[in-house]
Amino acid sequence: MRLVDLFAGCGGLSLGFQNAGFHIAAAFEYWDSAIECYRSNFTHPIIPCDLSDSDAAISAISKYAPDMIIGGPPCQDFSQAGKRIELDRAELTESFARIVAGIHPFCFVMENVDRAQKSQSYALARSILKDSGYGLTEVILDASRCGTPQKRKRFFCFGMLGQNDGFALDAFRSRLSEKSMTLRDYFGESLQFQFYYRHPRNYNRRGIFSIDEPAPTMRGVNRPIPKGYPGHANDACSVSPDVHVLSTAERAQIQTFPPDFKWVGSKTDVEQMIGNAVPVNLANYVAETVKPFISTYYAESYRI
């Protein structure tokens, strides 16, 4: 089967599906820096494309005749930052749905932040997908229970033609680990530090964490401990020179990118790519969960 990745970014979702044995025919992205980074790590093409123009996107994507579409429309305006207002970027969720409906592959996977599920934009996208004949399994996954040492909750919608809603929900839930994965669980004894700093959105949130707990969500910024950081009652330890500041490479590996993944672009762009990416192992968890449903569909369709 042929798969395309929309809003591919640097390739976290692509790599997770590729590692699960899926054949990716092409990826589509609009951010030049992410395109160059993606191109440095995959052999299949990535096509610059403004996916907000769904008619033009359908024309470009149709050339690859995809059986499956995956993608994570940009989610900043669904996130818990700022005023939580749905702006133009949120409309890209609707664009994703229109592209899926226009191409009509037999299945798709869409990823977004957890709060997107309750947004007006997703409600419209959902209506488009339902009207196109897709049964939808909608689930919020915690990456720390999906092979990723990071407390990162993400919403996934897995759609297949002719299915009832919720058809794959038990499969997603049954494979979850019983406990959250910590950094020590993932890295073993290779880390040379016990405590580290992750810059919070504001000082009402903690900033210092231990490797014996899941990491917080990796954000698109990476800053050293500011001189004015006041500390927080829930910090894993008090502020001291022994508190480690995560490097770009360490942040990428917490996102479960392999150590040999090539990061291309300015430091600011690379940090943003890392923060925006779907953790590779989370993507792989989703890919392995949907694979049996796809195999069954093919067996029934082609009487294998």
Would you write up a description of this structure?
With 304 residues, the protein is an alpha/beta fold. It contains 10 helices and 10 strands. A 7-stranded mixed sheet has the order 3-2-1-4-5-7-6, sandwiched between helices. It has a 3-stranded mixed sheet with strand order 9-8-10, with no helix packed on it. Helix 4 runs parallel beside helix 5. The radius of gyration is 19 Å and the shape is globular.
Summary, kept brief:
The protein is built from ten helices and ten strands.
Report the count of strand segments: 10
Reading side by side through the largest sheet, how are the strands ordered?
Answer: 3-2-1-4-5-7-6
Mean pLDDT: 93
> Which strand-content bin applies to the residues?
15-25%
Low-confidence region ranges: 77-88
How much helical structure, as a percent, in the residues?
25-40%
> What general outline do the C-alpha atoms trace?
globular
Number of helices: 10
- The separation of the N and C termini measures 14 Å
- Major sheet characteristics: 7 strands, mixed
Structural class: alpha/beta
Element order, helices and strands?
EHEHEHEHEHEEHHEEEHHH
For the CA atoms, what is the radius of gyration? Answer: 19 Å
Walk me through the topology.
Layout: E1 3-6, H1 12-19, E2 24-29, H2 32-39, E3 46-48, H3 54-62, E4 68-71, H4 91-103, E5 107-113, H5 120-131, E6 134-142, E7 153-161, H6 169-174, H7 183-187, E8 195-197, E9 208-210, E10 244-245, H8 248-254, H9 267-276, H10 280-302
Parallel strand pairs: 1-2, 1-4, 2-3, 4-5, 8-10
Antiparallel strand pairs: 5-7, 6-7, 8-9
